[in-house]
């Protein structure tokens, strides 16, 4: 004879196979509790994984910006037309594409910089090659 299903307010109840409904519910609660304990992540693991993901996203954005010149300005890193001596002369004064001093000290407000066309590289009397308007070097002097 098949197991008899008893009716309840939410439909038929499953057969308990010799166990009371109370023990069935207790077993299900213990199973959920042990599963949740296994899936909990420690704060340290969470922070390490979050920092790794943040670093990966940041590196990806930097790579995208460097590959196409970024959307903030021109790409003035093409120095293939310069001689080896001119390339090393760019390194000696510590020229960088983006000023660590932001708008306070950058090539745009430097005395040695001559601006190019809109959204284009400029030139410098001290550093040869294309110069980014947002760049900076150790020879920076306020424009007079």
Structure description:
37% of the residues lie in helices and 6% in strands. By secondary structure, it is mainly α. It folds into 2 domains: 17-68, no CATH class; 72-144, High-Potential Iron-Sulfur Protein, Chain A. The strands form 2 sheets. Strands 1-2 form a two-stranded antiparallel sheet. Strand 1 and strand 2 (11-12) form a beta hairpin. The chain is rod-shaped and about 90 Å long.
SSE topology sketch:
Layout: E1 7-8, E2 11-12, H1 21-39, H2 43-68, H3 84-91, E3 113-114, E4 123-124
Antiparallel strand pairs: 1-2, 3-4
* Mean of pLDDT: 74
Uncertain segments are 63-71
Percent range of helical residues: 25-40%
Q: For the report, how would you describe the main beta sheet?
A: 2 strands, antiparallel
The first-level CATH class of the largest domain is given as: Few Secondary Structures
DSSP strand content: 5-15%
Which structural class do you get from the secondary structure elements? Answer: mainly alpha
Keyword list:
single chain, 144 residues, mainly alpha, High-Potential Iron-Sulfur Protein, Chain A, two-stranded antiparallel sheet
Q: Care to give the gist of this entry?
A:
It contains three helices and four strands, in the order ββαααββ. The protein has 144 residues and is mainly α. A two-stranded antiparallel sheet has the order 1-2. Strands 3-4 form a two-stranded antiparallel sheet.
């Amino acid at each position: 004879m098949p197991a008899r299903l008893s009716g309840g307010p939410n439909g038929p109840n499953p057969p308990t196979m010799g166990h009371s409904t109370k023990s069935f519910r207790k077993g299900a609660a213990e199973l959920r509790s042990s599963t949740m304990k296994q899936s909990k992540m420690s704060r340290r693991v969470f922070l390490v994984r979050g920092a790794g993901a943040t670093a990966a996203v940041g590196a990806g954005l930097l790579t995208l910006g460097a590959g196409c010149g970024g959307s903030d300005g021109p790409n003035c890193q093409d120095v293939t037309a310069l001689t080896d001596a001119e390339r090393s002369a760019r390194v000696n004064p510590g020229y960088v594409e983006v000023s660590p001093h932001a708008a306070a000290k950058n090539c745009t407000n430097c005395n040695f910089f001559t601006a190019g066309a809109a959204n284009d590289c400029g030139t410098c009397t001290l550093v040869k090659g294309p110069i980014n308007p947002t760049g900076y070097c150790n020879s920076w002097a306020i424009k007079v």
